[in-house]
Design goal:
This protein is an alpha/beta fold and about 450 residues long. The protein is built from 17 helices and 13 strands. It binds adenosine monophosphate (AMP).
Amino acid sequence: MSSFEDFKISKQLGYAIEDLGFEKPTPIQEKAFPVVMSGKDVIGIAQTGTGKTFAYMLPILQQLKFSKQVNPRVLVMVPTRELVVQVVEEIQKFSKYLNVRVEGVFGGTNINRQKEALAQGTDIVVATPGRLYDLVISRAVSLKSVKKLVIDEVDVMLDLGFRFQLNNIFELLPERRQNIMFSATMTEDIEMLILDFFRGTEKVSVAVSGTPLENIEQVCYEVPNFYTKINLLEHILKDKENYKKVLVFVSNKKSADLLFSQLSENFEDEVCVIHSNKTQNYRLRSIEQFEEGVHRILVTTDVMSRGLDLTKISHVFNFDTPSFPENYMHRIGRTGRAEEKGSSILFYTEKEAAAKEAIEQLMNMEIPQQEFPETVEIATKLTAEEQPRILEPDNPHKRIDADAPGPSFHEKKEKNKKTNQGGSYRREIAKKYKKPKTRGDKNYNKRNKRKKR
Ligand code: AMP
């Protein structure tokens, strides 16, 4: 365990830390400090409350030299106005003994006052993307001197649909800059963003569950498809005695809606849902009703559940297997808190088996496998994603690799490769007697005999 002295920080930062009463760096600060200092692009996986703001701000403040220039050199983007206010306050505390100018800008308030403030010159701008863009377009601020870009809570940012605004801002930033992102969860969207804009990114993350694994009983079921997962979930949830307060995780809004509407058929007054396409009021009501025990089951996405303080969760269901193992740790960390015993159930399809193995590797343990209950019906209906792909061999516009398997593709096990073609006896006979395959092919055998002669 290191101390702040190991970071060799300036005296001024040391005094501020003393005033704040911080004794030692938190794990994410310890891990992020050298990487941010190195100037590499960084993605930090850490939740609110882990000390993540200081994790990126400490090295930035350490490297920021005094300057009188007007244009900001550090840009911090966050998804909400509340977070702008909070991050500005934190920076002010850390830089108490430094000569650093920081300005917060966000929408929904008078833009002119923000223009005036920026005209005075600033070192660090903390902003929501929409308002920042308006300010740049109206030439109230220039981003051409930004050397360090921080995007905090990038998962929420993308979930709220800010990708377009982010792209616009990236266009206005200098090519040579350090990118630093922080997120509570890792998502496909974040991976895309990194691939598009980051270079040689280093990942730092901390053990996020916060709950000792011994407190959580974990099991998993191999399930063939989405609708069978619903059948299995409904089968288990019939036991209302044990499954008192249940969180069901899915990775995206679409699955959350589909699952919610399916579950509502059998558990109408017991289930509620939250994701980012629901209004704030709807979400608050759902969470309140779940906390008060009006609803027993809450369906949620990874991103939405972060920051929620839910108590006494009896079971966490992983309706799908997270492709980023850290998200699994987040999910199961919702149960088994404060000395209580918790329980986690994972459903995985054959396609998700590799993701399950990655989770097991991260935890350094195998998740015990449960037998699929015989009484649960195997669904034949498939979701749009599960439908077999239609190949178009003659389409001249097709991309060459369009039919190639995706990154999560893996070969079927031998026993699963068999396909049911029906009528095995008829097929045997047909082979033996070389029966014509179509009515118009009656001379098939004759023709073949002739050839042989
Ligand atoms: P954050 O995760 O950035 O929202 O920080 C959560 C809280 O932890 C804030 O109130 C910080 O002031 C506080 N904090 C940050 N770093 C430390 C530290 N090294 N020791 C104690 N508290 C800290």
